[in-house]
Amino acid sequence: MTLLESDPNVNERFLAQHFYNNLHSSPLALKHMSAYLEKFGYDAANRVHRELSRFQKYNQLLYDKRDILQMAWLFASTPDKFFKNFNPQHPLENYACKTMEYKIKQEIFRIQMGQKQFSDWGLLKHCTRKSLQQALQCQGCTQPQLGCYLLAYNCFKEIYAPQRATSNRSLQPPTDTQFQEITNLYNHLVQQSALATLDTVHQQKIKQWLLECIQALRNFRSRQIISLDAPKGEDENSLPLSQITPDPTSESLWEKIIVQELTPQMMTTLSELLTQLDRYTNNHLLLKYGFNLDYRSIAPFFFVDSTTISRHCNKTTQKLLGQLTQWAQEELHITPDSENLKEINTLLKQCLNQYYQDFIFRSVFQDAWQQLDSECRHILYLRYFRRIDEAAIAHNLQLSELEVTNGLVTGTQKLAAAVCHWISNHLTVSLDFVNPLADKIAIFVQTLIANYPEHEF
């Protein structure tokens, strides 16, 4: 900071390069570069956390921001290793930014893939409190027992240390001495906090709880698929899940309106509003909500920047939201308060997805689907609509797995190519603009197959 203030020609980029050049000769330079990397670590951790937060509730990664920051700080603490593969001819800050994010993602992947290879005690040692809590709750564990498990886990983390350095695959159980220390710490914390809901326990009970925590973690990381045709509960004569309908009296008034009235009427009203839009705006929404493209991918089609597309789409959806809110107030007597506006906005986006994807389905996909040979259609249908894996498809159709894989690839490519040509013609742009999106279109094709009613195929 002194250098920055004393010399106007000295900036962060200059100093970072200076300290990097002296990284292996000056301990002070090493510390400065560690601090420099912490800034990139903080930004990268926030980006990774935002990405994970969109889907980690489905794949059970369960990292919060503090967990990811710990990884970033670990990489920042060893700048000499961090910059080992850096090419000095390239910008230093670009390398720091991209490499930090890459290292964090690689570490998360390594840990997640390694969970299956952990020994029981290695799994418990390296899990987070949040993941254990959710695993126990999925097992049906509630307070006060949940508090007992988590407190025992905290004591285990505090006391347990392997007797010798081994891999996580072969960590040994705590020794009898460690189990006793864990028990003593648990009882001490219970007495110190004077929690009426928790009692002091003996060593065997602590060991039992920790083993139950391990089993809960194992169960939580193993997906269990329950057939809708399976009976509900242990009685094999009970009704299957597919025949059990929710009690309509349990639905809120708003849920009834959405299911019974708002969605069909809203689709009709929205369709009328969308037909009044100009072709330019309609094409924006088609790419955004029909194909689920981001603004950066849409911009080249119209020779503008992504900000212009974003602003135009947001302005259009806000206008549609206002029109639908007025309609809901007049026709359904829904008060346009903040909560209802949020619900209508969510429903609007769902309806836009449905409207434009249905338009794509009718305009191009249905014909392209019929152009495929029957075997290829059957393979695509079984894989993406019925969600049957390739090995089972090969067995059912008496084909090799390679033939099934080739059928999936060929069918998807043909459908994606037909959709790409349709986009080119519909938007009157060169196919060169569409080709970079071929992979995204292929994924979109799989989504269309999965989401449309069976009778459509």
TrEMBL record:
Q: Which UniProt keywords apply?
A: DNA-binding, Sigma factor, Transcription, Transcription regulation
Identify the InterPro entries for this entry.
Answer: RNA_pol_sigma_r3/r4-like, WH-like_DNA-bd_sf
Is the keyword DNA-binding assigned to this protein?
yes
What highest taxon heads this organism's lineage?
Bacteria
Name this polypeptide is given: Sigma-70 family RNA polymerase sigma factor
